[in-house]
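Quick one from the shared queue. A colleague (R.T.) flagged Ribosomal subunit interface protein as missing a structural entry in our internal table.

Convert sequence to C-alpha cells.
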Amino acid sequence: MNYTENYKGIKIDVQAVSFDISQAVQEEIRASIDKLSRFTPNINAADIYFKTEGQGHTTERILGFRVGIPGPDVFAEVRGENWVPMLKDAVDKLVRQLQKNK
C-alpha cells in the first residue's frame, strides 16, 4: 500500500510493502506530524516506510521516518513488533534531532 496526502500543507508519503496500513496507524501518522510541527514550523514533507523482514517467528518490522525541512533532513529508523509504538519511538528520535539542530 502506497499513499500520499497533503496534511496541513505537509506532503506525507507512506509506503508499506505487501500490506495495508490501518486507519489507526494513519491517524497516528497525522498526530506525529502535529507533534513534530511544534518543534519546527518548516516541515515540507514526511516520508514514512513500513517494512517487514523474515518469515514466521523471525519476522521483524522496520519503520523509517524522514522529515523534510530546510537544510539537512532528519531521519529515524525503529525496529519492533507494533506499528503505533514504533511510530512514537521514531517521533521521539526525530524530536531530539530537531532540538539538537536548533
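The mean pLDDT is 92.
The chain is about 35% helix and 35% strand.
Added to the table.
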